[in-house]
Structures are given as structure tokens and as C-alpha cells.
Write a structure and sequence with these properties.
CATH superfamily of the largest domain in chain B: RNA polymerase sigma factor, region 2, helix turn helix motif
Strand content of chain B: under 5%
CATH architecture of the largest domain in chain B: Orthogonal Bundle
Number of strands of chain A: 6
Number of domains of chain A: 2
Shape of chain B: globular
CATH topology of the largest domain in chain A: Double Stranded RNA Binding Domain
Radius of gyration of chain A: 23 Å
Order of helices and strands of chain A: HHEEEHEHHEHHEH
Radius of gyration of chain B: 17 Å
Number of helices of chain A: 8
Strand order of the largest sheet of chain A: 3-2-1-4
Largest interface: A-B, 40 and 43 residues
Oligomer: heterodimer
Structural class of chain B: mainly alpha
Structural class of chain A: alpha/beta
CATH class of the largest domain in chain A: Alpha Beta
Number of strands of chain B: 0
Largest sheet of chain B: none
Distance between the termini of chain B: 51 Å
Number of domains of chain B: 2
């Protein structure tokens, strides 16, 4: 085969490709209209966006039922989205209006102006005793803490202290459901999926407000 | 193994599908409509796609159908059927030869234009293109080659690389 032919053909294809390219801004506008229409036509099973916060960027994801996942940067946002695609649905889109409310409430929370979240939750990613534990965590008041043991009692199983620890570390919606308010009986801070520093920062934020 | 989030599919293939829609339809407004309809159709069907599918070929198949919808709608509409390609006025990298190339592409017989777009812009196999265009693999290959030969005979690509140099200097 003639190499000159290949070269010129490649040049032609490069030129053709360039002649058909769209402005980046036009693609952004098209994508944003696509997302709006997808949401209107009820084709978005999981909507997400990334919210900046003092403890790093947080991925927030909402199903049609409610907030289903909050993820720390350390979890790897792409990895979390890949898992959500398998766990819930691959119809996952960024930035639909559905996530506006959670973004606004998180901003208010981190500014110290919001002490309780008022959001529909979707706890489909947890079941059994873990779910019972997580549904009791909002009973721990803003600015206070409770021991793993106390939470075990709240959840109706006072001896299940380790299971409470496990439930907290599997909380799919941290920050919004305050597993950071659960600490060890000796007053030490205990573990946190987002890191011990993040947990300490949240406790400090709440005690300052 | 599961399907990636749909947003990642738009990230990866959005630009390619737009090029294909513009190549096949010529007019940019119709291409934008076809692009949107392609991704809405794809999103609707996405959960049923087998995870080991060729997502690129799947999307181009949908784009092909949605572009044909646009052509049918255009033929029904009481408007002139031949539009020159609209110019993206905000495109700082826009060169006159882009219009010439696109006009030449639009002047190709429909089957050649499809074959060129699906082979050279979407990187589909000739077997896949044959399925799309309802012809044999060999016929798809021939259509793409004829289309490319017609475009090459215009020597437009030389003009383009020259004007690129001029505009850069």
C-alpha cells in the first residue's frame, strides 16, 4: 500500500473531523438541556453533583425517592458512582435540579446556619439492624454526641455495640445522617469513613455554632 | 461487570455523536436535535443494554435512526430541502475550508456520506456499517472508499493545512 495515500487520507480525515467539531460551550449547553429533559421525562434514576465543603468535596446522589448517598473524596467519587450504577441503576446523570436542595442545605450546615437537615432520604443501600441504627442517628441532637453503646440502646439492642460501629461506618449518607456524633464511651472520637480529622472538624463546627 | 454511569457515556461519546450527526445531516440545528434525540433514546434503553456491548456502535446505530427521523421531518416540512451548513460564528478556529469540506460532504450520495461518517468519524467496522446501511460488508467498504476518494479529489485538505499555517503566522 502506498504510504503517501495513507498520509493524505489521514490529513483529510483530520480536516473533516475538525470541520465538524462543535464549540465546547455549545456542547455544554446541549448537555445541560439533555439533563433537564431527561429529568422531565423521568429518565434519571440517580442524580448527582459534587458539593465543596470544609471537609473536602462531597459527592451527593439522589434517587427519585431521596438522598441515597453522600461520599467523601477519599472513597473515590468515580468508584462510588460505578457502584451506584450496579446497585441502583446506570441511568445516572450529573447536576439535575434534584440535587439543588441538598447542596443548599449542606452549604447552610457548613456555614453553621442549619442544625437539622430537612431532606427525603432513600436508605435502600442499607438493610436490617444497620438501617435501624441509621434511622436513629438523627435523634442525637446537633452539637451533642452519643456513645456507640448509647446508640445500641436507642436502636433496641443494648449489647450490639460493635454492630453499631459497623452500621456507622456503612452509613450511606454521612454528614446528613450524623454518624459523626457517635463516639467512644471513654470520650475518644472513634473512627470515621471520611477520616478522623473530618469527624473532629464536624464536631468542632457543631460545638462552635 | 455492570454498565458505567450514563454521564460517563455522554462524556466519552458526546463529541463523536455530534460529529456524526453534523456529517449526516449537514444543518447544525437538525444535528443538535438528532444529538439530543439520540441520547434521550439511549438513556431510555440504557438499563437493558448488555454490559459487554459495543457502546460506540450501539450509540451510532441510534444516531443513524434519529438522523433519518430528522431527514424525514425535513422532507415533510415546506422548506427548501438543501441548506448550506450553518456556520458556528463563535468558533475562533473556523476556516472557510471547513465550509467547503462540509459542502463537499453534503454533496456526496447519502450512502457514501453515511459510510464515511460511520467509518472515519465513529470508527465502526465495515461489518457494523453494512448492518446499519442494509448492505454487505464489502459494499460498505466500497461506499466509504468512494466517498473518501471524492473528498480527496477536491484537494481541500491541502488548502486547509496551508490556511492553518497562514492563520497561525
Amino acid at each position: 500500500m502506498n504510504t503517501e495515500f495513507i498520509t493524505t487520507e489521514r490529513t483529510l480525515v483530520t480536516a473533516l473531523t475538525a470541520s465538524l467539531d462543535t464549540d465546547a460551550a455549545d456542547i455544554v449547553a446541549l448537555r445541560s438541556r439533555l439533563t433537564e429533559r431527561a429529568e422531565r421525562e423521568d429518565l434519571v434514576d440517580v442524580a448527582y453533583r459534587v458539593v465543596d465543603s470544609p471537609i473536602g468535596p462531597l459527592l451527593v446522589a439522589a434517587s427519585s425517592t431521596g438522598l441515597v448517598r453522600v461520599a467523601f473524596e477519599s472513597e473515590g467519587h468515580d468508584a462510588v458512582l460505578d457502584r451506584l450504577a450496579g446497585q441502583i441503576s446506570p441511568r445516572i446523570m450529573r447536576m439535575p435540579a434534584r440535587t439543588d436542595d441538598v447542596a443548599r442545605q449542606l452549604d447552610e450546615y457548613f456555614a453553621g446556619r442549619r442544625h437539622e437537615f430537612d431532606l427525603p432520604l432513600d436508605l435502600q443501600l442499607v438493610s436490617g439492624f444497620r438501617r435501624t441504627v441509621i434511622s436513629h442517628l438523627p435523634d442525637i441532637a446537633y452539637g451533642s454526641t452519643a456513645s456507640y453503646k448509647a446508640v445500641a440502646a436507642m436502636a433496641g439492642n443494648p449489647t450490639a455495640v460493635r454492630a453499631v460501629g459497623s452500621a456507622c461506618s456503612h452509613n450511606p449518607v454521612p454528614v446528613v445522617v450524623p454518624c459523626h456524633r457517635v463516639v467512644r464511651s471513654d470520650g475518644s472520637i472513634g473512627n470515621y469513613l471520611g477520616g478522623v480529622d473530618a469527624k473532629a472538624a464536624l464536631i468542632a463546627l457543631e460545638s462552635a455554632a | 461487570m455492570s454498565l458505567p454511569p450514563f454521564e460517563a457515556v455522554v462524556d466519552e461519546y458526546g463529541t463523536m455523536v455530534m460529529r456524526v450527526c453534523r456529517a449526516v445531516l449537514g444543518a447544525d440545528a437538525a444535528a443538535e436535535d438528532a444529538w439530543s434525540e439520540t441520547f434521550i433514546s439511549a438513556l431510555r434503553a440504557y438499563p437493558d443494554l448488555r454490559p459487554d456491548s459495543n457502546v460506540r456502535a450501539w450509540l451510532v446505530t441510534i444516531a443513524h435512526r434519529r438522523a433519518i427521523d430528522q431527514i424525514r421531518a425535513r422532507n415533510r416540512a415546506p422548506l427548501p430541502t438543501e441548506h448550506p451548513p450553518e456556520r458556528a460564528t463563535s468558533d475562533g478556529d473556523h476556516l472557510p475550508v471547513d465550509d467547503d469540506l462540509r459542502a463537499a460532504l453534503n454533496a456526496l450520495p447519502m450512502k457514501q456520506r453515511h459510510a464515511v461518517a460511520y467509518r472515519y468519524l465513529a470508527d465502526l467496522s465495515y461489518a457494523d456499517i453494512g448492518l446499519l446501511l442494509d448492505c454487505s460488508e464489502a459494499a460498505a467498504r466500497r461506499s466509504a472508499a468512494d466517498g473518501i476518494a471524492a473528498l480527496r479529489s477536491l484537494d481541500l485538505y491541502e488548502t486547509r493545512s496551508n490556511s492553518r499555517r497562514d492563520s497561525a503566522s
